[in-house]
Design a protein that fits this description.
The structure holds two protein chains of two kinds. Chain A is 48% helix and 13% strand. Chain A contains 20 helices and 13 strands. Chain B is 75% helix and 0% strand. The chains are: A alpha/beta, B mainly alpha. The interface between A and B is large, with 44 and 46 residues.
Chain lengths: 436, 286
C-alpha cells in the first residue's frame, strides 16, 4: 500500500509536465511575475524559492525590511527543506510552469541542469565583492550565473574542557602523528575524563565520509578547484594512504558500532553532551549544539584542522550553495531580483543582518569590521581571511559519486567486506564510468 | 436502451476521466519517457532501449531486486502465519477479544516513517543495551550489517501489517458456518483435524486476498526502508522502490529511473497475477 506513493509521485510528476506544457502553449504573457508587473502600475513581484530551512524566519524578516524601503517590489518567499527534497521540488516547480524568479543551485552538476534558466549576474555589486574563488563553479563561458550564499568550513570540532583536563594543547596538533598521540592520550584516560570514546564517527552517514573526510585528501590533486574536479576524467587518490590513516583513526577510536551511528547522535547525543572529545563536522552544527547546551556552544567548542601533509593548519572552506536569477522572467523582475540580492549582501543594513541574524560566514568582501555571531563561524572566517584554506572539490565529483560510490565503499570497508585498496579501485572505476 | 446507455456513460465518465488523468495517462507518459534521456526538465533525444539495457547491467539495481525478493518471500510467509494466528486467537471465546483485536490492529495506524524511527531506536539502543547487560553478542550492532538490517525490516513490517491481515482472516473465519464445525465435531474430528480439513479450506479465499495484498505491499515498501536503515550499510538494504527514488532524485536520471519503474511494475504485476490465478484454482466452492 505504501509503495503506491511512488506511483503517485511519478504520476504527479508526469502530470505536472503535461499541465506545464499546456500553460506554455497558452502563451508566455501569463508567466509568473510578468502579469503583476503590468497590472499593478510599476509593481514588481519577485518569487523566491529557497532551500535553507534553518534561516527561513530570519530571511522573511529581511525581505520585509526590504519591501518597506522599496514599495514597488513585492517578494514572495517559499522554502522547501534541504538536500534532495529541494532539487525535487525545484524540478517540479519548473515543470509546472510556476518558475521562481530566484532559486538556489549547488555544485556544477546543478548549474549544468539549470544553465538555460540562469541569468548572468556579473554586473552586480555582489558579484564584484565575492571573495576570490567563490565564483568558480558558477562561471560558464565568461558569464557569472550565481551569487554565493555563504561560506562553510569544517574540521575536527573538539571539546575544550576535555582537552584541558587531559592536558592536550589543541594548538600544537598539526600533523597526523600529533593527532594520533592526542587521541591515544584521550583514550587512555577515558574513565577520568568521563567520555565513552575520543571520537564519534557517524559511518551511517555517507556524506560525512564521502564528501567531507575524502575532500580534505582529494583537494590537493584537483588543485583545490571544484571545476578541475568537475572536468576530470578520473581520480587518483594520491593521498589515499593518509586518507586511510585518518579514516581508521576516527573509526577505531569511535563509539562502536560506527555503522549505525548517525549525524544527530554524533552531534547531539555524543558531542553536545560531552560523551566524546571530538567530531568531524563544520560550523553548520553550531545552532544544533547551541540548542542542546548554549553555554557549551559558546565557550567550549574549538575547531581543529584535519591533518593533511603539506596543508597543516588549513581547513577546507567552500560555498555550498548559490543564488540564481531566472533568465526567463520578465526583464524588470530580473532587475529587481538582482537588486534585492545586491542589497542583501552589499548594503550596510543587509550585511549586518547576514552576519547577526543569518549567522553566515560571509563569502564577500567588506565584512571585516563586523562581528561574526558564533565562535565557530568566526573561526572559519578567520581561516578564510588568512588564506589558510583548502578547496571544496567534492561538489565537482560526478553526481552522487561521493555518497553512493565512495561513501558506500567506505561502509563496506568498515564492515570488513573489502580492503582499502578495493575502496580506491571501486571509487576510481565509478568516477571513470560516470565521466565517459 | 438508448437512455440506459446515456446514463451509463454519464455516471461513468467522471470516474473514467479521473482515472485517466491520474493513472492511465501519466502511466503512458512515463512509459514513453523511459525511452528517452529525460532529466526532469527536457528531453534531448530518443534513446530506445538504452535505459533498459543499462539497468540490467547495474549491480545496484540487481542487488536491490534480489534483496526485495528475499524480503518479500520471508515477510509474506511470516505475515500470513502471524495474521492467521492472531485471527485464530481473537475468534476464540476469550473475554478480551475485542480489546485484543484493537491492540493488534493498532500498529497499522501508525505511519511507516515514524514506525521506522521507533524501531530504529529499539534495534540500536534498546537491543544494544540489553546485549550489553546480558552479554549477548547477537543483540549488539543491529542495523549495522546487511543481515540485521534485513531482519530488522522483516520484523518491523510483520509487526506493522500483521494486524491488517488479521482483520481479513477474521472476516472469513467468522463466516464459516457453525454447522460444518459441529458436524465435524460429531464425527469425532480432533481440533487439529477440524482446522486442517474444515477451517483451512474454507478460509482459502482469504489467502488469495492477503497473499496478493502482502506481496504487493512488501514489494513496494519505501518509507519503512527509508527511516529504518536508509539503505545502509553500503546500500545493501536498499529495496527497489528506494533505488528508483534515488536514481530519480539524487542521481537526477529521471528517464533511467522511469525505466526501472516500468520493470518494477512488470515484476509486481506478473507475480501478483500468477499468484491470484493459482490461488483461485485452490479455493473451495461453498
Amino acid at each position: 500500500m505504501k509503495g503506491k506513493k511512488l506511483y503517485f509521485l511519478i504520476g504527479a510528476f508526469c502530470l505536472a509536465i503535461v499541465l506545464g506544457g499546456c500553460s506554455f502553449s497558452s502563451g508566455g504573457d501569463t508567466e509568473s511575475g510578468g502579469e503583476d508587473g503590468h497590472d499593478g502600475g510599476g509593481q514588481v513581484t519577485v518569487d523566491i524559492f529557497q532551500f535553507k530551512v534553518e534561516f527561513k524566519d530570519q530571511f522573511e524578516e529581511l525581505v520585509e525590511i526590504y519591501e518597506e524601503s522599496n514599495p514597488g517590489v513585492t517578494i514572495n518567499v517559499k522554502t522547501v527543506g534541504g538536500g534532495n527534497d529541494y532539487g525535487q521540488a525545484l524540478t517540479s516547480a519548473f515543470n509546472s510552469g510556476e518558475e521562481p524568479d530566484i532559486f538556489n543551485v549547488g555544485g556544477p552538476p546543478d548549474v549544468d541542469q539549470y544553465e538555460d534558466y540562469m541569468a548572468d549576474v556579473s554586473g552586480t555589486k555582489a558579484a564584484e565583492a565575492a571573495l576570490e574563488g567563490t565564483l568558480n563553479s558558477v562561471e560558464r563561458n565568461g558569464e557569472i550565473l550565481g551569487l554565493p550564499f555563504n561560506q562553510e568550513g569544517y574540521g575536527l570540532l573538539y571539546n575544550k574542557e576535555i582537552f584541558d583536563k587531559a592536558g592536550i594543547k589543541a594548538g600544537e596538533i598539526q600533523t597526523q602523528e600529533e593527532l594520533e598521540e592526542a587521541v591515544e592520550t584521550l583514550d587512555s584516560q577515558k574513565e577520568e575524563l568521563g567520555i565513552e570514546a575520543p571520537f564519534a564517527f557517524p559511518a551511517k552517514e555517507q556524506w560525512v565520509m564521502g564528501n567531507h573526510l575524502a575532500n580534505a585528501f582529494l583537494a590537493d590533486e584537483f588543485d583545490h578547484d571544484v571545476m578541475e574536479a568537475y572536468d576530470s576524467d578520473s581520480v587518483a587518490f594520491e593521498m589515499g594512504d593518509q586518507m586511510q590513516r585518518f579514516f581508521d583513526l576516527q573509526n577505531d577510536y569511535s563509539i562502536q558500532p560506527t555503522l549505525n551511528l548517525d549525524y544527530s547522535q554524533q552531534v547531539e547525543e555524543h558531542f553536545s553532551l560531552g560523551n566524546v572529545a571530538m567530531i568531524q563536522q563544520g560550523n553548520w552544527v553550531y545552532n544544533t549544539i547551541e540548542s542542546m547546551d548554549p553555554e557549551f556552544a559558546e565557550e567550549n567548542v574549538g575547531l581543529l584542522p584535519i591533518p593533511v601533509e603539506g596543508y597543516e593548519g588549513r581547513i577546507p572552506v567552500g560555498v555550498p550553495n548559490y543564488w540564481a536569477v531566472n533568465k526567463e522572467s520578465a526583464d524588470e523582475v530580473v532587475e529587481a531580483s538582482k537588486e534585492f540580492l545586491d542589497w542583501m549582501y552589499t548594503s550596510e543594513e543587509g550585511k549586518q543582518f547576514v552576519v547577526d541574524e543569518f549567522r553566515f560566514v560571509p563569502a564577500y568582501e567588506g565584512y571585516e569590521d563586523l562581528d561574526i555571531a558564533d565562535p565557530l563561524s568566526e573561526e572559519v572566517y578567520r581561516y578564510s581571511t588568512e588564506g589558510n584554506t583548502m578547496g571544496w572539490v567534492f561538489l565537482g565529483a560526478p553526481t552522487s559519486w561521493t555518497e553512493d560510490v565512495l561513501g558506500a565503499a567506505m561502509q563496506e570497508y568498515i564492515s570488513g567486506d573489502i580492503t582499502w585498496e578495493e575502496v580506491e579501485e571501486q571509487s576510481i572505476e565509478g568516477w571513470e564510468k560516470s565521466r565517459q | 436502451m438508448y437512455n440506459r446507455s446515456l446514463w451509463f456513460w454519464l455516471f461513468i465518465t467522471p470516474v473514467l476521466l479521473a482515472l485517466g488523468i491520474v493513472v492511465a495517462f501519466p502511466f503512458l507518459y512515463g512509459f514513453i519517457f523511459s525511452f528517452t534521456d529525460w532529466n526532469g526538465l527536457r528531453v534531448t533525444e530518443f534513446t530506445g532501449f538504452e535505459n533498459y539495457r543499462a539497468l540490467f547491467q547495474e549491480s545496484e539495481f540487481i542487488n536491490a531486486l534480489i534483496f526485495t525478493i528475499q524480503f518479500a518471500v520471508v515477510t509474506v510467509l511470516l505475515l500470513n502465519a502471524i495474521g492467521l494466528g492472531l485471527a485464530l486467537i481473537v475468534t476464540r471465546k476469550i473475554k478480551s477479544n475485542h480489546l485484543l483485536r484493537t491492540i493488534f490492529f493498532m500498529p497499522n495506524l501508525i505511519g511507516g516513517l515514524i514506525l521506522g524511527f521507533i524501531w530504529q531506536f529499539i534495534f540500536v539502543s534498546v537491543f544494544g543495551d540489553l546485549g550489553e547487560m546480558f552479554h549477548i553478542e547477537g543483540m549488539k550492532g543491529w542495523l549495522s550489517t546487511t543481515r540485521t538490517g534485513f531482519w530488522g525490516l522483516v520484523i518491523l513490517t510483520a509487526w506493522q501489517m500483521a494486524g491488517y491481515i488479521m482483520i481479513i482472516y477474521i472476516a472469513y473465519l467468522e463466516n464459516i458456518p457453525k454447522d460444518l464445525i459441529e458436524a465435524a465435531k460429531i464425527d469425532g474430528a480432533t481440533s487439529l483435524q477440524r482446522f486442517k480439513n474444515v477451517t483451512f479450506p474454507l478460509v482459502a479465499p482469504a489467502f488469495t486476498v492477503s497473499m496478493f495484498l502482502t506481496l504487493s505491499m512488501t514489494f513496494k515498501i519505501y518509507d519503512q526502508n527509508l527511516s529504518l536503515t536508509d539503505g545502509g550499510p553500503a546500500n545493501s538494504t536498499q529495496m527497489l522502490a528506494m533505488d528508483i527514488v534515488r536514481t530519480a532524485f539524487s542521481d537526477n536520471e529521471m528517464a533511467y529511473a522511469q525505466a526501472k519503474a516500468v520493470i518494477f511494475f512488470l515484476i509486481v504485476a506478473v507475480i501478483a497475477l500468477t499468484q491470484v490465478y493459482y490461488n483461485k484454482k485452490r479455493e473451495v466452492e461453498m
